Amino acid sequence: MSDFETDVSANSEGGFDPRRISLVRQALGQGDAGQLTTLLDPLHAADIADIIEQLSSFDRRKLIDVWYGEIDGDILSEIDESIREEVIGYLPRHILTDAVRELDTDDVVDILEDLEEPQQAIILGALTDADRAAVEQALAFPDYSAGRLMQREVVVAPLHWTVGETIDFLRNADHLPDQFYHVILVDPRMKPQGYVSLGRLLAAARATQLRALAEDSYRTVRGATPEADVAYLFTQYHLISCPVVDADDRLVGVITIDDAMNVLDEEHEEDMLLLAGVGEESSISDGVFETVRQRFPWLFVNLLAANLSALVIAQFQSTIAVFLALAALLPIVASMGGNAGTQSLTVAVRALATRDLTATNAMRVVRREAAVGLINGMGFALMMALVGWYFYDSLALGGVIAVAMVVNLLIAALAGVLVPLIFVRFGMDPAVSSGTFVTTLTDLFGFFTFLGLASLVLM
Amino acid sequence: MSDFETDVSANSEGGFDPRRISLVRQALGQGDAGQLTTLLDPLHAADIADIIEQLSSFDRRKLIDVWYGEIDGDILSEIDESIREEVIGYLPRHILTDAVRELDTDDVVDILEDLEEPQQAIILGALTDADRAAVEQALAFPDYSAGRLMQREVVVAPLHWTVGETIDFLRNADHLPDQFYHVILVDPRMKPQGYVSLGRLLAAARATQLRALAEDSYRTVRGATPEADVAYLFTQYHLISCPVVDADDRLVGVITIDDAMNVLDEEHEEDMLLLAGVGEESSISDGVFETVRQRFPWLFVNLLAANLSALVIAQFQSTIAVFLALAALLPIVASMGGNAGTQSLTVAVRALATRDLTATNAMRVVRREAAVGLINGMGFALMMALVGWYFYDSLALGGVIAVAMVVNLLIAALAGVLVPLIFVRFGMDPAVSSGTFVTTLTDLFGFFTFLGLASLVLM
After folding, report:
1. How many CA atoms are closer than 13 Å to the CA of B269, on its beta-carbon side?
2. For A72, left (φ over 0), alpha (ψ -120 to 50), or beta?
């Protein structure tokens, strides 16, 4: 039984026990390497990596000083990129090279991508010639492409083989990939022609032809295909693995669903962070200055936009001087427009990412947004008219803010869906800075409508 | 070769050709069922479902009238929940029952969850007794739990079997699940003890003991475990499948990675939509009134909050009357605070979802946010001081807005991380309405600091 992890209940909750981190800190305080091993050794590499991430920079340094001998390739792979460079910098050279040699080449590529030149050279130098060639070939594919994502070890069988021949081949193979879910069928020029799931292979009689078992959901991608498209294929067609081919349709590797799931996760994160105006690669473990560097530029653009709005308001100073209540109502206009715009924008960006919003239904979605903006606008117009009338004692003011609210929410709804659509039309990421665009538009139009109307009606 | 889809290039792009929708519309206009079949039949069910989603409600109805005979369980499973009920409503009863009978019970559960009582009854009535019992057992688990997600068909082998015995058993099995990646090892009481990947099974000699091949990454979950925790386990430990056990640790089903990937996708969508103040289940194919119903309440809360801010401003009317430039600068205060708060909030919500932000590092993250807020605040304070001095011709005004900017960005950064942490502390979803909370806080404090200082310094 020693081969199995039988402690089901401990596994059921997911994640590690936060109390373990306190114990790790204690052991670090005492410089007790034995105690560290007792605490960390039973854990999955992903959990050890999480603990390393959550320690302060000071404790992290100390942990590596005391425990570096135990840090292997798996742990290194699992550590978040934001602190991986730091950890690699602390590791003695021989530990680093041992760790890297253990890894599959796709994991080495994943680590290398985020490192600076000198560290890259150390790692490349640690690899065998064959592995280094494989890694360099992968790096020749564009960033964020299928070629970067794939593993180069593939399990293939000629089209004409039977189940029995395939099983005999697998039993005699020197080395098979850790993870494989299909046997890829290839023609004599290594062009993939389909694949057979291992489940079907196991269930079939030895004499069965492989081609009779091939799966319907078979797809291939080219090495240069963007990884976002790869992730889309996996979700859309429920793929488990997907062969990668070169420009001549020859098999060069395979992507498995766990890699696609990672990409999906990163794409989501990127959309979410970009929409919020945060650098796409920001992480909770970034330092203060790294965080300032990521956030400052977005806030700066926002400051310029806000000053533009302030200019609009300044044009109406004489009106505001007479009706001071207008000043108090300005933030309501800005806030409602901004929020309604963000609602439409988020739904649109999400639908673009899942490809549920396309050229086909764009006009219908724009019409729907306009209708929603109008209806919501009229509802809030009524409320604000009452507020204006009752609290600010002016029916005219109530009327002005009511009309402004309708116009504002209509523009917000339209801007929310049109801005990302226009971005996509020009080949840009719909999430990048579209938030600032939308709120700037709603602010400018909102203030202009509200104060312009006020000047006309009240003065 | 007819068994394989060999048109690699057509597959490489991902997704269907939008031109095909125009052709579908044409065929619908002519009521040409044969042409529809020519267009749709070669497609994957997921692509057919996308086309059905992207048609207008009118065209959708027409498509089902003409083409209902071809709509099967796979297509029904793939259709977005927001319009599935509509489609099911149009389908003749016998088509619906045929479609449902084809499906695995976990897909039936997935469809049933979103339907109203009468439609549920029709579908349950269509099932065989055994399937109905399975579906009803799954529905007995809480919403969004592992028990709802799992498939009940499992491939198991006794702990003491050899590879040869297992392969013989699989070859003779009447019916195996469509998707399985592991053989689960069980003891005589059906308690799972580990699992063997099909790859290892295939590569091993017939005499090898299964237990010698069991995988390290093995985990189980209980049926009542929330699906979000299940998705976390899959990403954290790179699982491909995960056995589900009951309260007595007996095997009741298995969850595969494609289901976990769906959950991950939905969780992300939920966080993103909730942060934007949109109902968590909104979709691009929702109708106008459904969309209004989702968005109105959030905007209403926002309106109340904005009126609160207006009240704060109204307290300073006499100051604004003297320095009208203050009115123009108010939106800058609101906009910078709101944006900086959203930045911190989004990073915090995301880190909570990925469990990178925990009790262990919360204090360090709060300190980091405070430092970032202070540094950014001082940067923008300098700029706004210059703006105040140069454009509004008042060094005092520049000083006031500078100090307000520092306080504002500090509060925004702190609120952005503290609000979701406090929500979690009280067992609430950190994404729900935390955006409104944060911007309300930054508006109130921002206006109060800015106008309060202005009253003190300028008057």
Report:
1. 19
2. beta
Considering only CB atoms, which chain B residues are within 8 Å of A210? Answer: none
Which pLDDT value is given to residue A16? 55
Name the β-bridge partners of A195.
A184
Which is the CATH superfamily of the domain at A156-275? CBS-domain (3.10.580.10)
| CA distances for B100 relative to A94, B71, B73, B149, B301, angstroms | 59, 11, 5, 17, 42
> Looking at the complex, does the CB of residue B17 fall below 8 Å from at least one CB of chain A?
no
CA distance B347 to B350: 5
B396 burial type by CB count under 10 A (0-12 exposed, 13-18 middle, 19+ buried): middle
| Most A-contacting residue of B55, B201, B372, B378 (CB-CB within 10 A), to test interface | B372
CA B263-B215-A13 angle, to 5 degrees, is: 45
Secondary structure of residue A97 in the 3-state scheme: helix
Written as one letter, the residue type at B122 is: I
CATH code of the region B156-255: 3.10.580.10
Cβ atoms within 10 Å of B58's Cβ, excluding its own: 9
Question: Who among A180, A237, A277 is closest to B342 (CB)?
Answer: A277
Report how far Cα B214 is from the mean position of its chain's Cα atoms.
Answer: 33
Q: Going edge to edge, which strands form the sheet with A182-186?
A: A156-158, A182-186, A192-197
Give the confidence band of A17 by pLDDT, cuts at 50, 70, 90.
low
pLDDT tens per residue across span B404-443 = 999 999 999 999 999 999 999 998 888 887 888 899 999 9
Tokens linked to B444: 């109130």
Taking Cα atoms as reference points, which of B286, B268, B252 lies closest to residue A235? B268
Which residue of chain B is at minimal alpha-carbon distance from A259?
B238
Q: What are phi and psi of A183, to 5 degrees?
A: -100, 125
List where CATH 1.25.60.10 sits in chain A: 16-140
* pTM, full prediction: 0.87
Q: Where in chain A is the domain with CATH 1.10.357.20?
A: 288-458
- CB-CB contact of A22 with A39 (8 Å): no
| Cα A397 from Cα A388, distance rounded (Å) | 6
Superfamily of domain A288-458: SLC41 divalent cation transporters, integral membrane domain (1.10.357.20)
Architecture per CATH, B16-140: Alpha Horseshoe (1.25)
pLDDT digits (tens, 9 = 90+) for A279-293: 777 788 888 888 898
Rounded to a whole number, what is the distance in Å from the CA of B54 to chain A's nearest CA?
Answer: 6
Whole-angstrom distance, CA of residue A411 vs CA of residue A405: 10
Using CA atoms, how far apart are residues B16 and B166, in angstroms rounded to an integer? Answer: 41
The whole-angstrom separation of Cα B435 and Cα B305 is 12
Question: Which residues, numbered 385 to 404 in chain A, qualify as contacts with chain B under a Cβ-Cβ cut-off of 8 Å?
Answer: 387
User: Could you give the residue range(s) of every CATH 3.10.580.10 domain in chain A?
Assistant: 156-275
Which pLDDT does position B3 carry in this prediction? Answer: 34
Is the complex ipTM more than 0.95?
A: no
Q: Which residues pair with A243 in a beta bridge?
A: A254
End-to-end CA distance of chain B: 87
CB contact burial A216-244 (16+ within 10 A = b; e otherwise): eebbbbbbebbbbbbbbbbbbbbbbbbbb
Looking at the complex, does the CB of residue A292 fall below 8 Å from at least one CB of chain B?
A: yes
